[in-house]
Amino acid sequence: MLYIHIPFCKQACSYCNFHFSTSMKTRDAVIDGICKELEMRRPELPAGSVPSVYFGGGTPSLLTEVELGRIFQVLYDNEYLTPPTSGSLNEPTNQQTNELTLEANPDDLDEATIQTLAASPINRLSIGIQSFYEEDLRFMNRAHNATEARSAIKKVNRAGFDDVSIDLIYGGQTTTDDMWAENLRIATDLGVTHISAYALTVEPKTALGVNVAKGKVSNTDDVKFDRHFNKLVDHLTSHGYRHYEVSNFCLPGHESRHNSGYWSGQVYLGIGPGAHGFDGQRTRKWNVSNNAAYAKAWAEINTPEDFAAADGFLYDAESLTDNDRYNEYIMTGLR
User: Fold this and answer.
1) What does 149-173 look like in DSSP terms, one character per residue?
2) Is 145 exposed, middle or buried (0-12, 13-18, 19+ CB in 10 A)?
3) What is the pTM (predicted TM-score) of this model?
4) Strand 164-170 to strand 194-199: parallel, antiparallel, or no bridges (unpaired)?
């Protein structure tokens, strides 16, 4: 499996602790680095077409047609994927064996962007809806509004995407029980095939975490989390969704093969600033969470020896003990 981290966002969501930057100064250099890293690290995955590619972030829907095309060209050239038999690199790649997911924000999904994605090899979208209510979206400092949240799903369905996942957040300070119930109703009425729902987590170094620590915002409530989670399970399972992972629900046949691979301990390669990878056995490796440092390092790497010498600066690694592996097996099994 292959994960590609696109570390850029228009603005910072109040709760997010993933690696990203709202500055686009290093954008071209980071894309250059991602392409070079894909070439250099190809031997870390088994030969043959990878079962899944996941563009995460950050905000991958910020990628232009040219940027996305560059990355896919590298994926074909280095045999991560098998090119379409028609010879057109903009056609979907063997959708029966490859799951190609791109995370998108609703405000990015204008008609031109949707058409670009529909004409690309991408065959699955994961849309960061979070809520269909303005109060929630403002509290989370999301870039989109409630109208865009609904219209994005309708537009991608019209464009022919039949594998669409959305993210929803429950238990937040602004989300009442009735609002959460309505969020679920809207989602199922829109017919999305996959829903990932997460409790709003207060992370220490985020804007939300700082405001909670200062007493400017109330903390989250475990009792409320419990109510919302139970409502989530009851509503979605009664509407035909399979609860196949603690936070994930899907209509039959629409499980995320990529995320399921993480939970079952498959080998995956993480590309881009802040990306993590696992060799399927003992070694976890993660890239530096700094766009400028990542771009500068890859500009100077031209050989496998150069890459090996960047250990501890460009990336770090850990070797898992038997106890670590056992604990991970238990934790992922519980999910």
Assistant:
1) HHHHHHHHHHTT---EEEEEEES-T
2) middle
3) 0.94
4) parallel
Burial category of 234 from C-beta neighbours within 10 Å (exposed 0-12, middle 13-18, buried 19 and up): exposed
Rounded Cα–Cα distance for residues 183 and 9 (Å): 25
* Structure confidence at residue 86 as a pLDDT band (50, 70, 90): low
Place of tokens 């996942």: 165
Q: Please write the tens of the pLDDT for every residue from 159-184.
A: 999 999 999 999 999 999 999 999 99
